[in-house]
Amino acid sequence: MFDVIIPIYRIDPALFKRCVDSVFAQSLNDYTVWVVDGTPTDADTYAGCMQLVEEYDNHPRFNYFRQSGTGVSQARNEAVTLGSSPFIAWLDGDDYWYPEHLAELQGCITTTSEDHVLWWNAGDVTIKFTTTRGNTFESAKNFNYHPHHPTWNPKYHGLHFRLDAIIFPSSVAVRRSRFEEVGGFLEEVWLGEDQLLWYHLCGDARQDDKVYLSYQNDFVGVYRQHDEDYFDKGQNPWQDLYGDEARDKCDADLKSNYLTYWGPLADWQQPDDITDEEWHDITTYRLTASTNPVSIEID
Asked: CB of 195 within 8 A of CB of 291?
């Protein structure tokens, strides 16, 4: 049912083992694992990971290959071409799943229509990062968890998803046919490439009846962000898109509707008086002013 895609690069062997073992511990065993490795062979972590790969090679659902290109987007896209399962589940090499993760996703998939293209679960997250000034911050919290979801109007659920960039890859499953239709991850984007893919999968914000996403309010995954982040190195290609100067470049009507309605949305209220045109302005403004580093077309 699932192709599980695990990209790794200079990863601590202990984290890699925890990641793969969490897949093998799934209560649902209808999956195939694809590990794609871009680690240089002279890296300190390479030998330890290769020792684990040799052990895992005896598992009938485990596959390992060397990445032919560079970047996590290229790695994920390449791994997808090797599989054939109708659904794709992502898991970064330093993350891990609780045993019910795939079973919960399967249950969500089987209870939704064939028009659905993306499903995700809630989970736990530990974030640790060091700023360019040397300050280190660490926090643990829940992600993809919304206690008000049972009362949230499904019409606004997908739109809130587009506005708030709430999904981490390791909690997500997507329909293969739609992934292939939109061309996968944008390989020229190396930061936030996952959010751009979710936007592409979901299509035009003006056609809400054509967009289907499903969310499980269950803690079945763990996401760990370690301290070797792109932001540590001051390399943020989206930096020019932040701040009032960039946002003021957008159409005044888009900005007006965005500022008017984003507050209630963030508080999980249901502003029933929003028109379709205003929804379009909100989502278009969010995409063009806040989250879109390249020129993309939304189907």
From this structure: yes
Domains and CATH numbers, the chain: 2-283 (3.90.550.10)
The pLDDT, as a whole number, for residue 215 is 44
Rounded to whole angstroms, what are the CA distances from 230 to 102, 226, 234, 238?
A: 29, 11, 7, 12
At a CB cut-off of 8 Å and minimum separation 6, what does 36 contact?
A: 5, 6, 7, 8, 65, 66, 67, 75, 76, 78, 79
Exposure of 33 in the CB half-sphere (CA atoms within 13 A): 28
**Residues 266-269: contacts with CB under 8 Å, at least 24 apart:** 266/164, 268/146, 268/148, 268/152, 268/160
Position 95 scores a pLDDT of 86
> 50 phi and psi, to 5 degrees?
-65, -35
pLDDT at 171: 82
The CA R_g of the chain, rounded to the nearest whole Å, is 19
* Half-sphere exposure (Cβ direction) of 50: Cα atoms closer than 13 Å: 11
Length of the chain: 299
**Unique residue bearing structure tokens 């793969």:** 20
